[in-house]
Write a structure and sequence with these properties.
Elements (H helix, E strand, L loop, with lengths): L1 H21 L16 E5 L3 E2 L7 H15 L2 E3 L7 E17 L7 E16 L5 E14 L4 H26 L3
Parallel strand pairs: 1-3, 1-4, 2-4
Antiparallel strand pairs: 4-5, 5-6
Helix pairs in contact: 2-3
Length: about 170
């Protein structure tokens, strides 16, 4: 019986040490090596180059909110920030995802995607830190009115796009 008790203690301590060692590589703060809030960032309003109205403002708002929540950069409200981000919404698409049961014509769910061309420039040197297209996606269930459903889904679509842009800015290899 005494041997079983020693074995149980050894397993217990092994489990405790294993759990503590699992957190050894964790670092608090931004993952790009900078201190949180060390650099400031300014997001210019995104231009809307699509036929779908009112897409630039939700994307700009969502990106500012995402950057503020991330905490890697200090969000600046004027143009004298360390990094200036500009962008344009270039494509909005809607694709059928599923159809109503017993009706092969009526769409039940749509897959929405929103693509923006994003450019981040270091203000002091003019160095381009990021210049690429980024796409955000979401799915929507169609109710009685497709237009109001899309209007309600626009913030979700903008948030997904903003989350992807924020990840590129904070964890980029620049």
């Amino acid at each position: 019986m005494r041997g079983l008790s020693c074995l149980a203690r050894a397993l217990w301590w092994g489990l405790v040490i294993g759990c503590l060692a699992g957190c050894a590589g964790y670092r608090l703060g931004p993952s790009n090596g900078l201190a949180a809030g060390e650099r400031s960032i300014f997001v210019k309003p995104f231009q809307n180059q699509t036929m779908e109205p009112r897409l630039g403002e939700p994307v700009t708002h969502a990106l500012r909110k995402s950057l503020q929540q991330d905490g890697t950069f200090r969000l600046n409200s004027d143009g004298d920030a360390d990094i200036v981000v500009t962008g344009a919404v270039t494509r909005f698409s809607r694709s059928p995802l599923s159809y109503q049961p017993h009706d092969l014509v009526s769409v039940q769910d749509y897959f929405l995607s929103l693509t923006a061309r994003v450019k981040a420039v270091e203000r002091s040197s003019g160095k381009v830190l990021l210049d690429r297209e980024v796409t955000g996606t979401t799915t929507v269930r169609v109710g009685t009115d497709l237009n109001s459903t899309e209007r309600q889904a626009t913030p979700l679509l903008a948030q997904d796009l903003a989350r992807r842009i924020t990840a590129l800015l904070t964890d980029g290899d620049w």
